[in-house]
Write a structure and sequence with these properties.
mainly alpha, 0% strand
C-alpha cells in the first residue's frame, strides 16, 4: 500500500503539471509521514543529497560554458568549421553538427548548446535555402551530444549515484559521442544532397582556415586542458571545473577581449538559476529514492526487471527502449534519480560494467532531449527558429533514428566505450 501510494501521488502530481522536483519531494515526504518511516530525518536527507564533492563540479562547468557563451566564442568556432566545410554540398549542415559537438564539450548542456549554436547558424542556413524546420531539428539533435561528450553534467550525476569514477566515464563517452556525431553528420549530408542544399562558394576575402583555427585555438583548448589535467593526475574532475572557469575568464578577457562585466554578471546569474534548478531536483529526488527504498519499491522493481530479462543483452535493450520512452516526458537528471536506484542491483546481478553502462544510459537519455512532447532541445530550437515543435520533430526523425542505431551499437559492443578508459589505465 505504501509503495502504491508513493507511485500514485507522483503520477497524479506530474499529470497535474507540478514541477518534477516538487512531485518527487511531496510524494516521498507524504509516504514517509503517513507511515511514520522516519520523516523527521527529511531535512538531513535533503541536504546530504547535495553535500557531495563531485556535485560541486556542476556549477563550475556550467559557469565556464556560460562565460564562453558571453564571450561569443561559439561564433569563433562556427567560423572555423565554415571555412573547412561550408563550400561542400550540405556544408552548413555539417558545420552545425561539428560546432554542436565542440560547443557541447564546453557547455555540458543540451539546451545551452542549442541556444548558442542556433543563434549563430539558423539564420545563415535559412538564407542559404535550408528549411528552417530542418535546420532547427539538426541543431536540436546535434546538441544532444552535450551530455555524452565530456565534460558532462549527466556523467557527474550518474557517477554520484552509482559511485562510478567520473574520470572513467568522461573518457568512456568520447568515442560513442564522436560516433554519434559522425552518424548525424552523415544523415545531414545525405538529406542536404537529396534536397539540393548546396555549399557556399568561397570568396577572395574569406579568412583562411589556418588563421581561423589560430583564432579559435583558445576556445578549442578548453576541453584539452580539462581532460589533460584530469588524466595527467594534476587535478580531479571537480578541480578541473574550477580550472575551466579560471581559463574561460582568462581567454575571454585577455585573449579575445570580448568578455565584459555585464557579460560576466549574466553568466553568474544564469549559472545560479541553472544550478539551483538542478540541486532542487537532486535534493527532492534523494528524498523520493529514500522513500522508494524504505517502502521496498526499489527491490520489487529490480526483481521485476530481472524477471523480464533472462540475460544481459535483452536487459540492456529493454531498458534502452524504456529510457527512450521516459525521455519523451522527463529530463535526464530526473530519469537518473528515478531509474538508477532500481537498476544498480540489476546491473550487479548480471555483472554489467558500470562505466560501460553509464555511457549507454546517458546516450539513451541524450536522445530524449530532442523527442516530443517535452524534449528540451526541441523547445529551445523552436523558440529560436519560430517554427512549431511538431514540424521540427518531423524533420528530426532521421537524426533520432541515426542516434538510436548508434545506441544499439554501443549497447551491444562494450569495447567501443571502454577502449579509451582501458588505454588510459582507468579501467
Amino acid at each position: 500500500m505504501d509503495a502504491a501510494l508513493l507511485v500514485t501521488v507522483l503520477v497524479v502530481l506530474m499529470v497535474l503539471g507540478a514541477p518534477l522536483g516538487t512531485a518527487l519531494g511531496v510524494a516521498g515526504l507524504l509516504v514517509l509521514g503517513i507511515f511514520d518511516y522516519g520523516w523527521q530525518m527529511a531535512g538531513v536527507n535533503f541536504t546530504s543529497a547535495i553535500a557531495s564533492f563531485p556535485l560541486l563540479a556542476i556549477p563550475f562547468f556550467v559557469l565556464a560554458g556560460m562565460i564562453l557563451k558571453e564571450a561569443g566564442l561559439a561564433a569563433v568556432i562556427a567560423d572555423f568549421f565554415q571555412a573547412l566545410l561550408a563550400e561542400y554540398p550540405g556544408g552548413l549542415a555539417m558545420v552545425a553538427v561539428a560546432t554542436c559537438v565542440v560547443w557541447g564539450a564546453l557547455s555540458g548542456s543540451g539546451p545551452a548548446t542549442t541556444a548558442a549554436v542556433g543563434l549563430i547558424l539558423l539564420g545563415p542556413m535559412a538564407r542559404q535555402g535550408y528549411r528552417r524546420e530542418f535546420a532547427a531539428a539538426l541543431v536540436a539533435n546535434a546538441s544532444d551530444l552535450s551530455i555524452v561528450i565530456p565534460p558532462s553534467i549527466a556523467f557527474i550525476i550518474y557517477g554520484n549515484i552509482t559511485g562510478t569514477s567520473v574520470s572513467a566515464l568522461f573518457l568512456a563517452g568520447i568515442l560513442p559521442g564522436v560516433l554519434t556525431g559522425a552518424s548525424l553528420m552523415a544523415v545531414a549530408w545525405l538529406v542536404a544532397r537529396r534536397r539540393g542544399y548546396g555549399g557556399r562558394r568561397r570568396q577572395a576575402d574569406d579568412t583562411s582556415p589556418g588563421r581561423l583555427l589560430l583564432r579559435a585555438s583558445g576556445a578549442l583548448l578548453t576541453p584539452v586542458i580539462i581532460l589533460g589535467g584530469i588524466y595527467g593526475g594534476i587535478f580531479t574532475p571537480t578541480e578541473a571545473a574550477v580550472v575551466a572557469v579560471v581559463y574561460s575568464i582568462f581567454i575571454g578577457v585577455f585573449v579575445y577581449r570580448s568578455l565584459t562585466w555585464a557579460g560576466l554578471f549574466r553568466a553568474l546569474v544564469q549559472t545560479s538559476i541553472t544550478t539551483g534548478a538542478v540541486m532542487f531536483l537532486v535534493s527532492f529526488a534523494g528524498i523520493f529514492s529514500w522513500a522508494a527504498s524504505t517502502t521496498g519499491l526499489i527491490d520489487r522493481a529490480s526483481a521485476a526487471i530481472i524477471a523480464l530479462a533472462p540475460n544481459r543483452w535483452i536487459l540492456i535493450l529493454l531498458v534502452d527502449a524504456l529510457l527512450l520512452v521516459l525521455g519523451m516526458f522527463l529530463d535526464a537528471i530526473s530519469i537518473c534519480y528515478i531509474m538508477m536506484p532500481m537498476l544498480i542491483p540489476v546491473l550487479a546481478g548480471h555483472g554489467i560494467d558500470p562505466v560501460w553502462y553509464g555511457v549507454v544510459f546517458v546516450s539513451a537519455l541524450a536522445i530524449g532531449q530532442a523527442t516530443p512532447p517535452v524534449g528540451v532541445n526541441l523547445f529551445t530550437a523552436a523558440s529560436l527558429s519560430g517554427c512549431e515543435v511538431d514540424s521540427i520533430a518531423r524533420q528530426a526523425v532521421p537524426f533520432v533514428a541515426a542516434a538510436a542505431l548508434v545506441l544499439v551499437i554501443i549497447s551491444l559492443f562494450p569495447g567501443l566505450s571502454l577502449w579509451i578508459p582501458r588505454l588510459a589505465g582507468l579501467h
